[in-house]
Amino acid sequence: MRNKPTIDDLDRAIIAELELDGRLSNTELARRVGLTPAPCLRRVQRLERDGVILGYRAIVDPKNGGRGFEVIVAIDIAVNDGETIQDFETAAAAVPEVTEMRRMFGQPDYYLRVQVADPEAYEALAVGVLSRLPAVNRLLSHQTMRLVKG
User: Ranges for the HTH asnC-type domain (predicted)?
Assistant: First the structure.
């Protein structure tokens, strides 16, 4: 059994810098957090090994990537047994336009973040795909006016 990783202030500083720019060189990261490169690299590798840092990714501008219209979709499913939940989650996760999915306590059962090109593309997706996912009982769409944080 592994112990829970301990994180100190230097680890937090490293994480904060990498959250801002995951492409920082180790030398620049070390300079920003006040370490020399070797111990900084060892800390980053430990944070990765311990599962604190899960990975690195590119952040794509949705508008420039053809997905500038964002909708938050609240979904209630008709049956909440294990098989139905698994079927719904598998099918919803396979929809490329669904960029985030959260199972909720209480109502609704799920929130999905959907990103498409425009309102017409969303309507086609909602009617043709989302409403036909396994056991969907209710689907409420909320258009994002503006992303404030995230």
Answer: 7-68
